[in-house]
Amino acid sequence: PGLYGDGPSMHFQFSHLLGVLLAEAHWVGGDHLMLALPAILGAASLVVFYALACRYVRPVLALLATAALAVNVVQLHFTRDAYSEVVVQLVALGSLWVLGLGDLRSHGSGRTRAVFAGVLLGTIVAARIDGPLYIVVIPVLFALAAARRKEGNDDSGDGVRFDVVGPFALAAGAVAVLGILDVLLRVP
After folding, report:
1. Residue 142's pLDDT band (boundaries 50, 70, 90)?
2. Pick from 123, 111, 101: which is nearest to 177 by CA?
3. In the chain, N or C terminus with fewer CB closer than 10 Å?
4. Is 157 helix (H, G, I), strand (E, B) or coil?
């Protein structure tokens, strides 16, 4: 239902990231890789989910949570066909993993990580037409964590330096603008 076309060419009615990824997979590996791409993206998102879960719980619990996600009917449904939800899952979880709030205290690598996390987060808009709804809450949480650190209420030392919020938001916003322009200018 998300495709239309007449003749040999088909067009996506929504954001084009999934279509581009499928086209690149076909260019690299033909029909076999193109048809396997949703499962590959689903497997990659499970790996990123496990890595993110390991930040908060013991690896055994993270593995159990990942196994539960892997056999979830919704996860299986979206990884069996070309849906943009798997791409969103991969980049959203990847952004949160790269963001690693406790790791953004060092001077040089903190800003670099924040920019990369922002680029990943902004990619959600290029994947789904409702992408801005997914990304609006994460910068707010990031700014609140930075403000908590700035006010001195964070005694644990796990707070975020305020100077990484700008690079994160700028990177996420720049990529999100590209995704919005794609939807406004290229979607029929």
Report:
1. low
2. 123
3. N
4. coil
